Amino acid sequence: MEDMIHKRWFHHVFQPIYALENWHVFGYEVLLRRECTPSPELLFRVALQKNRLYDLDSCSIYHALASTNFRNIRLFVNVFPYTLVHHSFPDFLEKLKSVCFSIQNIVFEINGAEKGLDIGLLRNAVQLLKDKGYGISLDHFGNGKTLMKLVSEIVPDFVKLDRSYTVGLSTSDQKQNEVRMVLDLCERKNMKLILKGIEEATDLAIAKALGVHMGQGNLLGKPMPLGGIF
């Protein structure tokens, strides 16, 4: 873990997020990858067990942004709540100034709620990001009342519904009604809804018909190296 962090034995890929209204690319989610690790989730789980989650997360964020410093594109960069409330995070934001070409094009994507999370601390950390001009997205939304409360507390700019809502959306009245409810919440709080995991054209068509603002998934575009974007 120590060598992986300091020697940067990882890389990033970029998956497009499309505005469904006009089919234009709105931005890209930055995803960490390591060849010999089956999934990034496993990598971060090991980092958490070794008490190195903040180090890996902040290192990933820094180098993801440094690699795209010269690109005028909107990036959704994943961050764990634990990282946001870490005592070193404000200093880390100052360090990011050296690699952030355009802060208004950076969206910090919070990976849901962690067990035992102090929402008050998280709200303060999110407000710091907002004050500095960063966008906020909440990922894995829809997994319980805790996340509903989190949306109300931090009021992100973007809300992502996970793929459990997407798969079979075209044939499920219940899922369509739930998407409508979240859309209503987004409209009332001036947030944009992003639907993840779109794999089927029929589900994409229903998402657009329901009024979902943006979509992401392999049907629209697979994760690719930075060079593949251009």
List the SSEs and their pairings.
Elements: H1 2-6, E1 11-19, E2 24-33, H2 40-49, H3 53-66, E3 75-79, H4 81-84, H5 89-96, E4 106-111, H6 119-132, E5 135-141, H7 145-154, E6 158-161, H8 163-166, H9 173-188, E7 192-195, H10 201-210, E8 214-215, H11 226-229
Parallel strand pairs: 2-3, 3-4, 4-5, 5-6, 6-7, 7-8
Antiparallel strand pairs: 1-2, 1-8
Helix pairs in contact: 2-3
Proportion in helices: 40-55%
pLDDT under 50 segments (min length 5)?
none
Overall mean pLDDT = 89
User: How many independent structural domains?
Assistant: 1
Q: Would you identify the CATH H-level superfamily?
A: EAL domain
Q: What separation lies between the terminal Cα atoms? A: 32 Å
Structural class category: alpha/beta
CATH class: Alpha Beta
**Count of DSSP E strands?**
8
Overview features:
230 residues, TIM Barrel, alpha/beta, eight-stranded mixed beta barrel
Q: Could you explain how this protein is built, in words?
A:
By secondary structure, this protein is of the alpha/beta class. The protein has a single domain, classed as EAL domain (TIM Barrel, Alpha-Beta Barrel). The chain contains eleven helices and eight strands. The protein has an eight-stranded mixed beta barrel with strand order 1-2-3-4-5-6-7-8, surrounded by five helices. A hairpin with a 4-residue loop joins strand 1 and strand 2. The radius of gyration is 17 Å and the shape is globular. The mean pLDDT is 89.
